[in-house]
Amino acid sequence: xxxxxxxxxxxxxxxxxxxxxxxxxxxxxxxxxxxxxxxxxxxxxxxxxxxxxxxxxxxxxxxxxxxxxxxxxxxxxxxxxxxxxxxxxxxxxxxxxxxxxxxxxxxxxxxxxxxxxxxxxxxxxxxxxxxxxxxxxxxxxxxxxxxxxxxxxxxxxxxxxxxxxxxxxxxxxxxxxxxxxxxxxxxxxxxxxxxxxxxxxxxxxxxxxxxxxxxxxxxxxxxxxxxxxxxxxxxxxxxxxxxxxxxxxxxxxxxxxxxxxxxxxxxxxxxxxxxxxxxxxxxxxxxxxxxxxxxxxxxxxxxxxxxxxxxxxxxxxxxxxxxxxxxxxxxxxxxxxxxxxxxxxxxxxxxxxxxxxxxxxx
Length: 362
Fold this sequence. Notes:
Order of helices and strands: HEEEHEHEHEEHHHHHHHHHH
Mean pLDDT: 78
Helix content: 55-70%
Number of strands: 7
Distance between the termini: 32 Å
Low-confidence stretches: 1-51
Structural class: alpha/beta
Strand order of the largest sheet: 2-1-5-4-3-6-7
Number of helices: 14
Radius of gyration: 22 Å
Strand content: 5-15%
Shape: globular
C-alpha cells in the first residue's frame, strides 16, 4: 500500500490516529467491497470489454421498458409498441454522425411507415432545449424525438458511444444493433426490420448486405471492419497480444474507429505500456470529445503511474457526465484507498457496489 506521496507502507502499519484493530477491520471491508464490485461488474478493465454498443442488453433478451416525453410533451412508452418492430436510435444532436443518422432514419421511417414499424430517436437533454426543436424543424423530421432528461436510459442500456441504433422485435426483444454511421446504414436497418416482418428472408438479407457493402464501402473501410472484427474475436478468446496487431491494422485504415482505439488502449494498459495506452485514449477524444470510456481509460493510466490527482480529475468528470458511473466510482475508490483516505474509499466502493446490485436486481 502507498501513502499520498506514493511511498511504500510496511504491511500491517497503521495510519496515525486509527487503532490497529480498527484499521485491520477497515482494510478487510475495503478489500471485500472492492472484490465484490470487481466480480459483480465482470470487467473493471482487468478483463477486456467486448465492444458491444449496448453493454447491458443481451441479443434475444428483453429490453427494459421506459416512458419518455417527446418534444411535444407527449409520453412515449416502449411497451405500448409491443406487436411492432421498433427502431430506436440514440444520438448527440451536436455530432456530425448523429445528424447523418437522423437523416437516414427519416428515410427508414418513410420506407417502413405502413409496415408496422415504429421509429423513435432518443436524445439527451440539451443545454438549449429549443436547439433540438430547431434542428428537427430544419431537417423536417416526422418521427418522434424523445428526451432523456437525466440520461437514465443511457445508463440502463449501457451505452458508451454515439450514435447507436437498436432494433427491437414484436415481442420486445433486443435483436440487432448498429454502431455509428456508414454508407450502408439505411439499407441495413430497413432490411433487418423487413426480415422481422417476414417480408424478406435471412438469405435474401445476407445477399443484400453483401451487395450494399460492395457498393457503399471503400476497400479500406471493408478491410478496417474485417480487421476490427478479427481483433475482437481474438480478444474475447483471451488473446490480447494477437488482437492488438489487428486493431492497429484497422486503425491504420480507418483512424476514426473509436472502438478500436478503446480496445487497443485497454490492451496497452494491461501490458503496462502506459504511454501507448494514453495515446490511444487521447485520440479517442479527437473523435468523441466527451467519451467517458476514454476518461476512465486515462484515469486508469494515471492510477498505474501513481498520478492520483490527475486520475481523480478525470474520474470526477466521467462521474458528472456518465449516466452509469459505476466503473468510474470503482476507480475513484481505488485512488482513495491508495491515498489511505479510508472513509472516502469505503463510501465510494459502497456507492459502486450498490449500483451493481441494483442493476442486477439484488
